[in-house]
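Session log. Operator J.P. requested a structure for one protein chain; no other inputs attached. Running the standard single-chain path with C-alpha coordinate output.
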Amino acid sequence: MTDEYIYRIRSRIAEIERELQRIQALEDELEELRVAERVLGRFGSISEVAINDRKQPRKQSIGDQIVQVLGFYGPLRAGAITQKLDEIRGSETRKLTVNVTLSRLKATKRIDYDGKRWFVIEGDEAPAVQPAGASSGRGDTLPIERLRLIPKP
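Structure written below.
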Protein backbone atom coordinates (compact mmCIF):
# COMPACT_ATOMS: atom_id res chain seq x y z
CA MET A 1 0.00 0.00 0.00
CA THR A 2 2.84 2.38 0.87
CA ASP A 3 4.49 1.75 -2.49
CA GLU A 4 1.28 2.76 -4.26
CA TYR A 5 1.18 6.10 -2.37
CA ILE A 6 4.84 6.75 -3.15
CA TYR A 7 4.15 6.00 -6.83
CA ARG A 8 1.15 8.43 -6.87
CA ILE A 9 3.16 11.12 -5.12
CA ARG A 10 6.08 10.75 -7.53
CA SER A 11 3.73 10.78 -10.50
CA ARG A 12 2.07 13.95 -9.22
CA ILE A 13 5.50 15.58 -8.62
CA ALA A 14 6.55 14.74 -12.19
CA GLU A 15 3.24 16.12 -13.53
CA ILE A 16 3.65 19.38 -11.56
CA GLU A 17 7.28 19.74 -12.70
CA ARG A 18 6.19 19.35 -16.36
CA GLU A 19 3.48 21.95 -15.78
CA LEU A 20 6.02 24.31 -14.16
CA GLN A 21 8.32 23.93 -17.19
CA ARG A 22 5.41 24.76 -19.48
CA ILE A 23 4.57 27.81 -17.32
CA GLN A 24 8.22 28.92 -17.40
CA ALA A 25 8.20 28.69 -21.20
CA LEU A 26 5.01 30.77 -21.27
CA GLU A 27 6.55 33.35 -18.91
CA ASP A 28 9.61 33.59 -21.19
CA GLU A 29 7.36 34.11 -24.21
CA LEU A 30 5.32 36.69 -22.32
CA GLU A 31 8.45 38.66 -21.44
CA GLU A 32 9.59 38.62 -25.09
CA LEU A 33 6.17 39.87 -26.20
CA ARG A 34 6.25 42.67 -23.61
CA VAL A 35 9.69 43.77 -24.85
CA ALA A 36 8.43 43.74 -28.46
CA GLU A 37 5.35 45.72 -27.43
CA ARG A 38 7.49 48.38 -25.72
CA VAL A 39 9.78 48.68 -28.74
CA LEU A 40 6.89 49.00 -31.16
CA GLY A 41 5.16 51.41 -28.80
CA ARG A 42 8.19 53.70 -28.87
CA PHE A 43 8.95 53.52 -32.57
CA GLY A 44 5.76 52.24 -34.15
CA SER A 45 5.72 49.95 -37.12
CA ILE A 46 6.96 51.19 -40.48
CA SER A 47 3.54 50.87 -42.11
CA GLU A 48 1.87 52.65 -39.16
CA VAL A 49 4.34 55.55 -39.40
CA ALA A 50 3.87 55.78 -43.16
CA ILE A 51 0.07 55.81 -42.81
CA ASN A 52 0.19 58.45 -40.06
CA ASP A 53 2.54 60.62 -42.17
CA ARG A 54 0.08 60.55 -45.04
CA LYS A 55 -3.00 61.22 -42.91
CA GLN A 56 -1.80 64.02 -40.65
CA PRO A 57 0.26 67.10 -41.34
CA ARG A 58 3.55 67.17 -39.48
CA LYS A 59 3.19 68.51 -35.96
CA GLN A 60 4.94 71.72 -35.16
CA SER A 61 7.88 71.48 -32.78
CA ILE A 62 7.81 73.21 -29.40
CA GLY A 63 10.72 75.35 -30.61
CA ASP A 64 8.74 76.61 -33.59
CA GLN A 65 5.78 77.32 -31.32
CA ILE A 66 7.98 79.32 -28.93
CA VAL A 67 9.42 81.37 -31.80
CA GLN A 68 5.90 82.09 -33.03
CA VAL A 69 4.68 83.09 -29.55
CA LEU A 70 7.65 85.44 -29.12
CA GLY A 71 7.15 86.79 -32.63
CA PHE A 72 3.55 87.64 -31.87
CA TYR A 73 3.69 88.76 -28.24
CA GLY A 74 7.18 90.25 -28.23
CA PRO A 75 9.74 89.74 -25.43
CA LEU A 76 8.46 87.49 -22.63
CA ARG A 77 9.78 85.81 -19.51
CA ALA A 78 10.01 82.02 -19.53
CA GLY A 79 6.97 81.68 -17.26
CA ALA A 80 4.84 83.80 -19.58
CA ILE A 81 5.98 81.77 -22.58
CA THR A 82 4.95 78.58 -20.77
CA GLN A 83 1.57 80.11 -19.93
CA LYS A 84 0.94 81.19 -23.56
CA LEU A 85 1.92 77.74 -24.83
CA ASP A 86 -0.47 76.11 -22.34
CA GLU A 87 -3.30 78.33 -23.56
CA ILE A 88 -2.56 77.75 -27.24
CA ARG A 89 -1.93 74.01 -27.03
CA GLY A 90 -4.76 73.35 -24.60
CA SER A 91 -2.52 71.22 -22.42
CA GLU A 92 0.14 71.76 -19.79
CA THR A 93 3.69 72.30 -20.99
CA ARG A 94 6.43 71.40 -18.54
CA LYS A 95 8.62 74.34 -17.48
CA LEU A 96 11.73 72.22 -17.90
CA THR A 97 10.78 71.48 -21.51
CA VAL A 98 10.32 75.17 -22.22
CA ASN A 99 13.60 76.14 -20.50
CA VAL A 100 15.63 73.51 -22.36
CA THR A 101 14.02 74.50 -25.65
CA LEU A 102 14.73 78.19 -24.98
CA SER A 103 18.39 77.37 -24.40
CA ARG A 104 18.59 75.36 -27.62
CA LEU A 105 16.89 78.11 -29.60
CA LYS A 106 19.39 80.60 -28.17
CA ALA A 107 22.29 78.31 -29.14
CA THR A 108 20.97 78.16 -32.72
CA LYS A 109 20.55 81.95 -32.68
CA ARG A 110 16.81 81.93 -33.33
CA ILE A 111 16.09 83.78 -30.08
CA ASP A 112 18.08 85.67 -27.46
CA TYR A 113 17.84 86.59 -23.78
CA ASP A 114 18.44 90.04 -22.26
CA GLY A 115 18.67 88.87 -18.65
CA LYS A 116 14.94 89.15 -18.04
CA ARG A 117 13.04 88.28 -21.19
CA TRP A 118 13.39 86.12 -24.26
CA PHE A 119 12.92 87.64 -27.72
CA VAL A 120 13.15 86.70 -31.39
CA ILE A 121 16.37 87.79 -33.08
CA GLU A 122 15.75 90.26 -35.90
CA GLY A 123 15.48 88.54 -39.23
CA ASP A 124 13.98 85.33 -37.84
CA GLU A 125 10.54 84.49 -39.18
CA ALA A 126 7.48 86.19 -37.80
CA PRO A 127 4.54 83.99 -36.85
CA ALA A 128 3.14 81.95 -39.72
CA VAL A 129 -0.32 83.42 -39.04
CA GLN A 130 -1.11 86.66 -37.31
CA PRO A 131 -4.57 87.14 -35.89
CA ALA A 132 -6.94 89.35 -37.83
CA GLY A 133 -6.70 92.98 -36.84
CA ALA A 134 -3.19 92.75 -35.38
CA SER A 135 -0.91 95.35 -36.85
CA SER A 136 2.61 94.48 -35.71
CA GLY A 137 1.62 91.92 -33.11
CA ARG A 138 3.96 93.45 -30.51
CA GLY A 139 2.27 94.20 -27.20
CA ASP A 140 -1.23 93.64 -28.55
CA THR A 141 -3.63 91.95 -26.22
CA LEU A 142 -5.78 89.49 -28.06
CA PRO A 143 -8.05 86.63 -27.04
CA ILE A 144 -5.92 83.52 -27.24
CA GLU A 145 -8.47 81.63 -29.31
CA ARG A 146 -7.67 83.95 -32.24
CA LEU A 147 -3.99 82.97 -32.26
CA ARG A 148 -3.49 79.66 -34.01
CA LEU A 149 -0.08 78.20 -34.64
CA ILE A 150 0.24 76.80 -38.13
CA PRO A 151 2.95 74.23 -38.95
CA LYS A 152 5.61 75.29 -41.43
CA PRO A 153 5.27 73.52 -44.80
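Operator note: The longest strand covers residues 111-113.
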